[in-house]
Amino acid sequence: NAGVTQTPKFRVLKTGQSMTLLCAQDMNHEYMYWYRQDPGMGLRLIHYSVGEGTTAKGEVPDGYNVSRLKKQNFLLGLESAAPSQTSVYFCASSNSGGDTRLYFGPGTRLTVT
Amino acid sequence: RKEVEQDPGPFNVPEGATVAFNCTYSNSASQSFFWYRQDCRKEPKLLMSVYSSGNEDGRFTAQLNRASQYISLLIRDSKLSDSATYLCVVIRAGGTSYGKLTFGQGTILTVHP
Q: pLDDT confidence of B96, banded at 50, 70, 90?
């Protein structure tokens, strides 16, 4: 099992450019999440999904969109990147919501100049 | 006041030392608690759950104090390999599918020879 994988690992964007981050999991998990991690801020939930075809907003959803067309994939899109979106992005999955273990991907380091 | 707060440290301790960190939470409806470990530039990984009666896993002991609303992590006989950031996670029953899972900002531990 590869667990949770993320592509790309690193990316530099110019302000206004768009990109999609891909998360894939092979554990047949229903729940998937996108977090961003910034110094001194902890991990903050951007969007999450409770199953194929569903998505919902987390704490900091503005400027991001997501899609879960297949159970194993969760895509995070930035339509018009801003310097405030410079961060490390982690995808995670879990068997169910709430009181369960999260499995994280290795992260994507994004810099927006 | 942040919902979950940790002393960011850093804690610098010699090998073999005992070190403890606390994590305070503000919402008394919080119901589940975890410690995650995050190595430098890596993803967080579950270290241990925190049970009401306290629990131990080798050199690690986790405790919950509901009256004072904090959880703690004690590491005995510190090893160089324990150097990492320790994240507390608090889950509040919120009626949403994913519960209301909040990460602390993390406590940095450095164990030196």
A: low
